[in-house]
Design brief:
- By secondary structure, the protein is mostly beta strands.
- 0% of the residues lie in helices and 40% in strands.
- The strands form 2 sheets. Strands 2-1-3-4-7 form a 5-stranded mixed beta sheet, with no helix packed on it. A 4-stranded antiparallel beta sheet has the order 6-5-8-9, with no helix packed on it.
- It is globular.
- The C terminus is likely disordered.
Length: 107
C-alpha cells in the first residue's frame, strides 16, 4: 500500500497512485504539500521524497539516520521499535507494524 504524506497531500502524487493520504502539519511551510510517499514491501518500508524543498530524514532504532535528497528513496526494515520520519525540519511521523489503516480506509 502506498501512502502520501504532506501538508495537503494528493493520492495522484505517488507513482501508480496511492491508497491513503496523511495530512501532517497543515500550517507548516517546511512541509511540502506532497512531501513523501511510504510503501510497505515485503515487511520493509520504502520511503521516497517527492521532490520536497526541505528534505526527508528516516530514523530506525540502533542505526544512523538517513537524509534523503530531493526525489531520493530508501528502504528500511519495519521493526517493533518502529521508524521515524522527519519531514522538513519540524514535522514527524512514527510508523509501527500494524499502524497502517485497513484497505479502503483513508488515514
Amino acid at each position: 500500500r502506498r501512502t502520501v504524506l504532506g501538508r495537503a497531500p494528493s493520492r495522484d502524487r505517488a507513482d501508480g497512485g496511492a491508497e491513503h493520504i496523511v495530512q501532517i502539519s497543515p500550517e507548516d511551510p517546511m512541509v511540502s504539500r506532497n512531501h513523501a510517499v511510504i510503501e510497505v514491501i515485503d515487511g520493509e518500508i520504502v520511503v521516497t521524497d517527492l521532490g520536497s524543498k526541505n528534505g526527508t530524514s528516516v530514523f530506525t532504532p540502533g542505526a544512523p539516520g538517513i537524509a534523503l535528497d530531493s526525489g531520493g528513496a530508501t528502504r528500511v526494515a519495519l521493526t517493533s521499535s518502529g521508524v521515524v520520519l522527519i519531514l522538513g525540519s519540524t514535522a514527524s511521523a512514527w510508523l509501527y507494524p500494524g499502524s497502517a489503516p485497513p484497505p479502503g480506509e483513508q488515514a
